[in-house]
Amino acid sequence: xxxxxxxxxxxxxxxLLIADDHGSFRAWARRMLADDGxxxxxxxxxxxxxxxxxTILRPEITLLDILLPDMSGLDVADxxxxxxxxxxxxxxxxxxxxxxxxxxxxFIPKTDLSGVALARAAAxx
Length: 125
What we know:
By secondary structure, the chain is an alpha/beta fold. The chain has four helices and five strands; from the N terminus they run βαβαβαββα. It has helices at residues 23-35, 47-57, 73-79, 115-123; strands at residues 15-19, 39-44, 61-65, 85-90, 107-109. The chain has a five-stranded parallel beta sheet, sandwiched between helices. β1 (15-19), α1 and β2 form a beta-alpha-beta unit. α2 packs parallel to α3 (73-79). It starts with 14 loop residues before the first strand and ends with a helix.
């Protein structure tokens, strides 16, 4: 059976790092995204830890909160290499961040996060 046209498939065992300062969000995202087929290889609670975790763990995707306590998620995204695909998230809406071009296609509001939404955002060029 083939997937319908336009369907987004989650690659089997895509590795994922979750970087967010709220432990409850990380725990919820971990459970939900693991249930959707992602392999969660680590978590980070701030920008410095996220940069270190990406360097050590080499996740295929990093789900990165824009508003971290020590630095902007946008600055974290600039500091890590291109070995990981960064998908930004926030409890605020995308419009709250102005015309930031790095958000286009690679931003998911926390309320809309799902395995499919993450796969779709990570697949964007």
